[in-house]
């Protein structure tokens, strides 16, 4: 009886060793389904197990869309100020890192007035220099303000060109006042959030918190508003926004690794 029991334990121990040695393969094989967005659970594929021959690389896709207000209310001076912000901040975004992960960062940009002009989409991403050249060449439109069109177009682009498990961020620059015939920007923003897009609003001027336009920016932005409502007039804008995005990225990848670990531990315990 003792010999039989020892043999069984030896087989179980050996099987668990096999599972443990295959853990890296499981992580490697689920890279394409591994999410940086904790709203999307990790799904590990079932396949034959064999240890990887190369180091594991965990990839986190991060997609960020800049939306510039090119309306008559923004004026040429503010439009140029928005462009300058995008040019500076896009360079800084290249510094975002997450320990143990390789970030696949892609940027896109569009401008809006009574119409929407797509300047650079996600699929065309090559590098930050190409992106910045497109932004630098943007021409001011100067018609009415229809921010709902911009949000809707951006949401559609996220749906077409990015994976559902990527970190999606929309940076909307606006003065908070639309043309009377414009559709509801709040409704458009709600639809964007339903697609797991984190929405930041960047007011074109420093507005008191009790102003109606500031309240509208808060209703468009993701919650909590104190983290997602910013101002182009704030000298610390870039520092604040970089800090928020850095936290967002690192929180997302930490949650993803936690989900993978829990899944593997449960699988091992079950076996």
UniProtKB/TrEMBL annotation:
| UniProt keyword list | Disulfide bond, Protease inhibitor, Serine protease inhibitor
Q: Name one Pfam family in it.
A: VWA
Q: Establish whether keyword Oxidoreductase is in the entry.
A: no
Organism domain of life: Eukaryota
Identify the residues that the record assigns to the VWFA domain, covering every copy: 63-245
Molecular function per GO: serine-type endopeptidase inhibitor activity
**UniProt xrefs under InterPro entries:** ECM_Assembly_Org, VWF_A, vWFA_dom_sf
Respond yes or no to whether keyword Disulfide bond is given for this record.
Answer: yes
Protein name listed in UniProt: VWFA domain-containing protein
Q: What is the lineage of its organism?
A: Eukaryota, Metazoa, Chordata, Craniata, Vertebrata
């Amino acid at each position: 009886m003792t010999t039989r029991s020892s043999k069984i334990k030896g087989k179980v121990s050996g099987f668990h060793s096999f599972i443990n040695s295959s853990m890296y393969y499981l992580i490697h094989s689920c890279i394409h389904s591994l999410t940086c967005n904790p709203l999307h659970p990790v799904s590990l594929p079932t396949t034959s197990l064999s240890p990887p021959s190369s180091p594991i690389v965990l990839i986190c896709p991060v997609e960020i869309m800049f939306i510039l207000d090119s309306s008559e209310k923004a004026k040429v001076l503010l439009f140029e100020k928005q462009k300058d912000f995008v040019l500076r901040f896009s360079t800084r975004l290249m510094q975002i890192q997450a320990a143990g992960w390789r970030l696949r960062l892609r940027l896109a940009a569009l401008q809006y007035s009574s119409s929407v002009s797509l300047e650079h989409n996600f699929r065309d991403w090559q590098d930050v220099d190409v992106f910045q050249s497109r932004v630098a060449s943007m021409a001011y439109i100067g018609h009415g303000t229809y921010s709902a069109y911009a949000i809707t177009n951006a949401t559609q682009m996220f749906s077409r060109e990015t994976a559902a498990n990527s970190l999606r961020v929309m940076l909307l620059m606006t003065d908070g006042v639309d043309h009377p015939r414009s559709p509801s920007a709040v409704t458009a923003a709600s639809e964007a959030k339903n697609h797991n897009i984190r929405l930041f609003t960047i007011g074109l001027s420093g507005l008191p918190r009790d102003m109606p336009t500031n309240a509208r920016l808060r209703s468009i932005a993701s919650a909590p508003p104190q983290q997602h409502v910013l101002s182009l007039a704030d000298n610390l804008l870039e520092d604040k926004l970089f800090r928020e995005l850095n936290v967002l990225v690192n929180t997302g990848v930490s949650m993803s690794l936690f989900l993978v670990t829990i899944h593997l531990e449960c699988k091992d315990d079950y076996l």
